[in-house]
Design brief:
Arc Repressor Mutant, subunit A, two-stranded antiparallel sheet, 4 helices, 2 strands
């Protein structure tokens, strides 16, 4: 299944560089070429991306990926959901860090007040 995180990242990369290859996309996302291909096909199937051929500088046909109007709208929605999710993760981490800092501070206070064994 294609998660919001991958949808967001793929749509963002394609928007920034429409001529991006699937290999470059896979490297940027840290996924396999097969998974990149699957993701692109899934986004094309639901109408968020369209693909067209163009000739690149090496005289080979290559593909250009373009966001459809629906893709642009969906990217905005995904961006908002992705941002909210990351902010929740950030706040959870901040709370966890505060608890750990408190534990360390309390542990340090206990260690300095404990009598030494001689």
């Amino acid at each position: 299944m294609l998660t919001d995180e991958y949808r967001y990242k793929i749509l963002k990369l394609v928007e920034e560089k429409p001529e991006i290859s699937q290999r470059e996309l896979a490297e940027a996302l840290g996924i396999s070429l097969g998974k990149a291909n699957y993701c692109i096909k899934a986004l094309i199937k639901v109408g968020l991306l369209k693909v067209s051929n163009f000739k690149n500088s090496k005289n080979k046909l290559a593909y250009m990926y373009l966001l459809t109007p629906t893709g642009i709208e969906e990217k905005t929605k995904i961006t908002i959901r992705f941002l909210k999710n990351k902010m929740q993760e950030f706040e959870a981490l901040r709370r966890e860090i505060n608890v750990l800092q408190q534990e360390v501070a309390e542990q340090g206070a206990l260690e300095t007040s404990a009598p030494e064994n001689k």
